[in-house]
Amino acid sequence: MAAHHHHQKQIAIIGAGISGLLACKYALSKDFNPTVFESQNGVGGLWANTLPTTKLQTPKSLYQFADFPWPESVATHFPTHDQVLDYLQSYADHFELTKHIKFNTKVIGIEYRGVAEEEVEAWALCGGNGDVFGSRGGKWEVEVSSDGSDKTEIFVADFVILCVGKYSGVPNIPEFPNGKGPEAFQGKVIHSTQYSGLEAGESKELVEGKRVAIVGFRKHAMDIAMECSEINGKGNPCRVLYRTERWSFPDWFPPLPCLYLSRFSELLIHKPGEGILLSLLATILSPIRWGISKFVEREIKRKHPLEKHGLVPKQSFLQDVSSCLIATVPDKFFDRVEEGSIVLKKAPSFSFCKEGIKVEGGDKDENKQQQPPLEADLVILATGFKGEKKLQDIFGSKRFREIISIANLYTSEMRSRWLAELLDGKFRLPAIEKMEADAANWDVFFKEYGGESYHRSSIATVHVWYNDQLCKDMGWNPRRKNGLWAELFEPYGPTDYVSP
């Protein structure tokens, strides 16, 4: 298929995190004219707004750009916050991406102009005729404000790429009945993103000598708990409230890539759009799938005192990894629990009172009496973000508000390369009805393996299968290894996709 004549095509990219940098690089590779709008003053996205003590929880070999390896000076498997930011900045500098980024520029709204919404709703093909740039001259109007100014300007684009991320932006603040929210509490309540934005001296001043309670038990919550316990010790232990027990890794579990990132591992799982033979094979091999999950669970329990602290999850490891609910436990976290500077407390639900937090639905004493309030001076809500809310705020049309998804660096690079080839006219999208049916198949997959948390599901357990589909669209050979054994059993990673 002939490529587009697109030297003047304007591509608007929202966000200069990992996905935004990749989208910009691959748009440039096809001679498009990208402009990246970034609300912060530098690249990095989420990594520019996390704790200085935070480390990468994926080994760097699985978290790197395909054609830009980590520098030799980074010897650790789990680079620090500063090392990750330096790596991302070096990538932007190496490929001269910075000159295409408008920093301190916030996107206020996005509208599609030139074609009536009723007509767009009736399209059977993308763009009306299968052309991603449209057949009727429609354009995107991106309204932005710079440097906190009240004045806005309009940027007109032929195509918009959203790289806004799901783990930043709009904090997820739990809702409470009247009189039972933060307003009832005499202390201070902040969201974890506010804590992360503090300088080291400010965070120490905030928590020192305070009774701190953290709501949440994922990576950010554990990192903050480690900082608080370091400052206050056993004298004022940091209380961590969690709702559901989840499987979490020690620093690294070497067999994991072979067990979950190889082509063989994906033969054990029913995949969206698979044929009868693959479906039958996944059913026959299901005992192996169960056995692998149990093996990983046993190893985690061997390395972490989960049983001692009542932290053994009811759901399988496979369900948690399918729902993107696996975290890496900070080094010496359970040592702090053992010494008493971190106290874990199950709280299926909670509310605020004057003294602190009322835990509801957790453990009660033998007489079934209500637990006394958990007294606190500071409550930090490590309750995540509302990524979808950012889209609702940006788009005027309801049609475009629910299309955000989770991706890591590895996935983002493949998606960016696929998108660049699509925009370049190498292939066309199928009919909208067919794409909707394919999306429905993926939804069935997420529900099957993600359980009650399926809405958080990712492609973590079917990376190879997912990338196979992208490779086929781009005309690449999806088989990237040398030899049958390597193809089946060696884990796939970013460097397997350096070239077509």
TrEMBL record:
Alphabetical list of Gene3D superfamilies matching this protein: FAD/NAD(P)-binding domain
Record keywords, A-Z: FAD, Flavoprotein, Monooxygenase, NADP, Oxidoreductase
Cofactor(s) required, per the database record: FAD
Entry EC number(s): 1.-.-.-
SUPFAM superfamilies linked to this entry: FAD/NAD(P)-binding domain
Keyword Oxidoreductase recorded: yes
Pfam families per UniProt: FMO-like (PF00743)
Molecular function via GO: flavin adenine dinucleotide binding; N,N-dimethylaniline monooxygenase activity; NADP binding
Family: Belongs to the FMO family.
PANTHER family: DIMETHYLANILINE MONOOXYGENASE
Name of this chain's protein: Flavin-containing monooxygenase
Organism (species): Linum tenue
